[in-house]
Amino acid sequence: MSGPRIMRYRAGFTLIEVMITLAILAGLTALTWASVSQIFVTRDAVDERFERYQLVRLAMNRMANEVAQAYVAGPQHGGEIIPGEEALYEGDEEQMAMQLREPVQFGMIGRDDEISFTAFAHVRVLEDERASQHTQIGYELRREVNEEGDVVNRLVRRSHTAFVDDILSGGVVHTMIPEVESLEFEYWDPGPVKIGSAREVAQGRWVSEWDTTRRDHAGRLPTRVRITLTMPALGPRGQSEVFTTQATLGMTELLEY
To answer: Domain map of the chain by residue range?
Structure first.
């Protein structure tokens, strides 16, 4: 007499269990990929912002440092006659002859969106370079087409180590920031200030232009220049970013030595 039959089932998973497992695995994989993708997106955004801040910092520091070394000179150094002082040189034939032979322009011509000036800011990096510390520098925005075909404003620097008769042109041009929204210069005019007085603080004001070729600013430079740089937004939801710095000029009076 045989005993009761024992039903034996093979060990394994049903089709439904396999499908549920695969669904859970797919969900976990999707969540992991989304998290990793977000990490890469965040990393790229941080890198882009860091590169922007680094570029802006270098550009602002260079502009401020070079503007701080600006100077203005007159006929004693072969420069143009200071506006308003023409009568002092009417009988000086030697001085007038020098003006005709070597017309050199020293000083600053600044607008609200560009600036050109002479400065003791040239750094010689080439061996036996025949150049002094003198340089003529200009900063401005130029509208150009970028690699994507869009018209953008580029912040460019123009420099020339030669003694020229026009500081508004010439020199080597290179791009400092490839895309800028706006650039603004402001000039602190202390007015007729005596050395050691506090009148500059009391009566000084910011002006949007400075031109040493005119009588209003002849033979002198602003004591400070404020530089405001506006960068375009990063991404469609971003906002424009504004950066500001000031340069304090060390030589504001006519160079006479």
So the answer is: 43-248
